[in-house]
From TrEMBL:
Protein name stated in the entry: Larval cuticle protein 65Ag1-like
PROSITE patterns: CHIT_BIND_RR_1, CHIT_BIND_RR_2
Domain of life the protein comes from: Eukaryota
GO molecular function, one term: structural constituent of chitin-based larval cuticle
Signal peptide boundaries: 1-17
Keywords: Cuticle, Signal
């Protein structure tokens, strides 16, 4: 009986320690030989979408090109979104809250 009481107390303590547990509310993925895409959304408002595909398959300049976005709700209550491209030119993020480099 003591074990049951201790176990119940331990479970209650764990539940109380995680009052804002985040759950996955949507998840999808499709992975192929030459491309993939996936998406994820959690109960706290976080979202992630991404698609990638091989470019110039079988050639010397073969590369993967990725297009995606992610968003999250910050501590200030504002939802921030970043969209990006990642390819042979590197990672190129953009978002209303991100600084922009001056024109060269």
């Amino acid at each position: 009986m003591k074990f049951v009481i201790v176990l119940a107390f331990a479970l209650f303590a764990v539940a109380a320690a995680r009052p804002n547990a985040v759950e996955i509310v949507r998840q999808n993925s499709d992975v192929g030989v030459e491309s993939y895409n996936y998406g994820l959304e959690t109960s706290d408002g976080t979202k992630k979408e991404e698609k990638g595909e091989l470019k110039n398959l079988g050639h010397e300049d073969e590369a993967i090109v990725v297009h995606g976005s992610y968003s999250f709700v910050a501590d200030d209550g504002v939802t921030y979104t970043v969209t990006y491209v990642a390819d042979e030119n590197g990672f190129q993020p953009s978002g209303a809250h991100l600084p922009v480099a001056p024109a060269a």
